[in-house]
């Protein structure tokens, strides 16, 4: 069973419609300029005809773009540059819009001159991360490694409280209380 050829037909990008509209506007502006120059009896009749020829070319190229003909993209680039120069105040804006759209990746691909472009993603992106409705992982997550707590620096040994010195009697050498005023053995006064 063969697949229908419509399934593989290149899709017309939305930017292509904007390009065709811009080229039609450029063609109408060139017709307008050509008619105005002819009506004013411009001394160079060649200019009138040149603008009218450019207008006809713009309409032909816009029809080629609509049918996605391969030659139409290159012709539209040339016509866009010429229109941006010749129709300076009014025709520059549609010509620049045409040149911007003609270099979009989906338009290049539609004319067979660029890599394929992914289709737009509709809807919301799936949630990612644990606890957000994500799919369970087939393996445990790799958490950062746990390191042992840092070793505390060695404690500085505290000096033991100095006990009051034992007193001895200078006269007889018997031990005295810390608060003794006189020796209990010999009765000598302790200073």
Describe, in short, the structure shown:
The protein is mainly alpha-helical.
Helix and strand run: HHHHHEE
Based on Cα principal axes, name the global outline.
rod-shaped
Q: What portion of residues is helical?
A: 40-55%
**Which spans have pLDDT < 50 for at least 5 consecutive residues?**
none
Structure notes:
It is built from 5 helices and 2 strands, in the order H-H-H-H-H-E-E. 19% of the residues are buried. The mean pLDDT is 79. It is mainly alpha-helical. The radius of gyration is 49 Å and the shape is rod-shaped. Helix 1 runs antiparallel to helix 2 (45-66), helix 1 packs antiparallel against helix 4 and helix 2 (45-66) runs antiparallel to helix 3 (70-86). A hairpin with a 6-residue loop joins strand 1 and strand 2 (175-176). It is 45% helix and 2% strand. It has a domain at 11-110. The chain has a two-stranded antiparallel sheet with strand order 1-2.
């Amino acid at each position: 069973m063969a697949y229908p050829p419509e399934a593989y037909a290149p899709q017309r990008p939305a930017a292509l419609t904007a390009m065709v509209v811009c080229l039609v506007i450029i063609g109408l502006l060139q017709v307008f300029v050509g008619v105005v120059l002819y009506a004013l009896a411009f001394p160079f009749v060649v200019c009138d005809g040149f603008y009218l020829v450019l207008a006809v070319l713009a309409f032909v190229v816009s029809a080629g773009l609509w049918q996605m003909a391969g030659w139409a993209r290159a012709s539209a680039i040339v016509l866009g540059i010429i229109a941006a120069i010749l129709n300076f105040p009014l025709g520059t804006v549609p010509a620049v819009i045409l040149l911007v759209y003609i270099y979009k990746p989906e338009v290049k691909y539609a004319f067979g001159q660029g890599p394929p472009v992914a289709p737009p993603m509709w809807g919301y992106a799936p949630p990612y991360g644990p606890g957000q409705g994500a799919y369970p992982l087939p393996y445990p997550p790799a958490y950062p490694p746990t390191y042992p707590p840092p070793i505390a620096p060695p404690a500085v040994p505290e000096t033991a409280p100095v006990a009051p010195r034992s007193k001895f009697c200078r006269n007889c050498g018997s031990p005295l209380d810390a608060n003794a005023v006189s020796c209990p053995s010999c009765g000598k006064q302790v200073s």
